[in-house]
Every structure is written in structure tokens, then in C-alpha cells.
Amino acid sequence: MTNRNIIILLGMLSLTLVIYSCKKDPKPVNKVFPFDIGALPPPNIPVDNALTPETVQLGRMLFYDTRLSRTNTQSCASCHVQANAFTDTNRFSVGVTGAIGKRQAMAIFNTAWHTGGFFWDGRSDLLRHQSLLPIEDPTEMDDQLDNVISKLESDPQYADQFFKAFGSAEITGEKMGLAMEQFMNSIVSKNSKFDQFLAGTYEQTASEARGMQLFFREFTPAFPDSSGADCTHCHTGLTMENDLFMNNGLEDDAGVQDIGLEEVTGNPLDRAKFKVPSLRNIELTPPYMHDGRFNTLEEVVNHYNSGVKQSATLDPAITPTINGLNLTQQDVADLVSFLKTLTDEELMTNPDYSDPFM
């Protein structure tokens, strides 16, 4: 064999080895996530974290994994229960040490439509950051991120899933946050009776129909026959929220104990302002308000009807109702009937959102 033939043969052998090497450790090709949003408007999915089936599945695993807590007994899902629209029906959640939080757990669904910050006080700008904070919070999961990563590294299924999602088996806090952000953004509530009514497939009862009229009508005390409950300044559109932080008159200036957004911004003009939650699935998420002070929807409506308190930062949208909405008991009952049509039965049982370890 000539030197030239040997060189050609070696070259072909090298090329074969390169091709074999590439086939042996291929990069994953992630598909586009089948994101069904129904009639909701386009969501605000971060451009640097588009949903893929592999990463959503990883986030789902992390969301339900109790190893994210120091005692290996509590997961994100412990305080955000699917049957309760991913919230906690206890007034305040209890952490792994028995410590009790100071605010009611917020519901997790339709987070893809939120851009104004997370938590009641907006202390996390992105959902990927919010998802990691409970891990190291001593009143919640009370662990250290590095320790959680070590626990996950001992489980081969995580190496496999991180590789499928990110093309690398390395587990990092940044990847964990991105994955949990994707899973939470994949949770969509879009099929309530109200949605079905809008689609022409559900006929409202008389009480529900009248409650809807009250919900969407402006408060016009000069014309009592056409005056409404004025709910849509804060609970807007199909998402039933406005992505803002507002003071809804729970306390006067002397009574404020939780300063809310001001604790984050340091601005006194933000005192007692809290994130406006969606009214979707509100029937499933008692108790109500940031401090869980109201146990029933009737109590919530009655607060706006006759309980709003004046303060320096009371939202201008609520100020006109400071003397009450003049709702009758029947009005309150009809409003509650309508609010219950915002319940999405599918959300509670959708297997795509359930515990993957069960």
C-alpha cells in the first residue's frame, strides 16, 4: 500500500470516528410545545425561554419533587395544590420547620400573561427567579440551592431530563428556574362556564346573567337602576386581572400592618399595594386577599359594597366607591353566582399538570 493510500485510509477512518462520535452523543431536538390557550389573548412568554415539551416536563418534575426542601417532605405543589387552582386553602402556608408565612399562597395558573412582577409584593421580576426563592426561604422549604442540586444529581432520571431539555446533564439553579418557569407558564385556565357562554355552548342562569351585568357595569350612583359593581377596572379582559399592584381599601392609614409593594420599592406611594389576582377559579381559592382575611366570596363582595377604607394610597379606581356600591343582598348573591362561572373544572384534573411521580 502506498503512502498516499495510507493517508486516504486514515482520513476516511478519522471521518468515520467523527461521525460515530456525533451520533453517539447527539444534541436533543426539542419540539414546539403544544400550547392551547383557547380564546385568551396571546401570552407574554419570555423570548429567551420558549416552551418545549422536554423542559416543561422537567419543570413539572421539579415542581412536585419534595427533595427541593430540607426535610424532603415538601414540594412547590404542597402549597400550590392542583385541586385548589394551585393554591393553599389554609390562610397561611406552613413550612417544613412549622414556620407560618405571613401572606396567603397565590394561585398558579395563566402566569404566562403576567409581566408586572411576582409574589403579592412583586419582589421577583421573573417567574424563573420566583420559583427558586421558596427553596431557601426559612419559613418555607428551608434548604440551600447547592444542597438541592446535590440531591438531584444522585438521581439518574434528572441527568437524563436535564439533557433532554438543555442538551447537557449538568444541573444548575439557572436551569431549574427556567424549567419551573416553563411548567408554570404551561398551566392555562381557559374553559370555565363563562368561556363556554362566550363561545355559545353554555346558557347562563338568570342569577349568573344578572351578576355578569353587575360585574361589567360602571358604578353610577346618579343612575341607580343602571349602576353596577365596577369590577373591571381591576379585573380586566379574559384573564380577569390587570397585572398591576393596587391598594383596595382593606385598611386606613393607621391600620396598615403589611406595607406590600412599598417593602420592595421603598416608595411610600406604594404603601399597602398588592398584586391584583385573577378572578378565574376564585371559587376554588379561599381564603381571600393577601392576608386571607375573608373566607367567602360574599365577604369579598361586601367589602367592596360597604367596607372600603380611605387611605393615602387607595387606588383612584376604587375611590369613587368609598361610600359603598349600594348593592342589595340579591345583587351580592347574583355577583357571587357569576364569579362561580369562572371556575375551570378541567384545570383541577388535567393530567398534564399533575404529579409525574404518581
According to DSSP, the number of beta strands is: 2
Main-sheet strand order equals 1-2
Instruction: Give the CA-CA distance, first to last residue.
Output: 64 Å
Number of helices: 14
- At the first level of CATH, the class of the largest domain is Mainly Alpha
Tell me, rounded to a whole number, the average pLDDT: 92
Strand count, sense and barrel status of the largest sheet are: 2 strands, antiparallel
Low-confidence runs of at least 5 consecutive residues = 3-25
Specify the structural class.
Answer: mainly alpha
| Alpha-carbon Rg, integer | 25 Å
* Tally of separate domains: 2
CATH architecture of the largest domain: Orthogonal Bundle
Please identify the oligomeric state: single chain
Query: What is the percent of helical residues?
Result: 25-40%
Shape: globular
Please indicate the percent range of residues in DSSP E strands (runs of 2 or more): under 5%
CATH homology superfamily of the largest domain: Cytochrome c-like domain
Order of SSEs? HHHHHHHHHHEHEHHH
What's the CATH topology label of the largest domain? Cytochrome Bc1 Complex, Chain D, domain 2
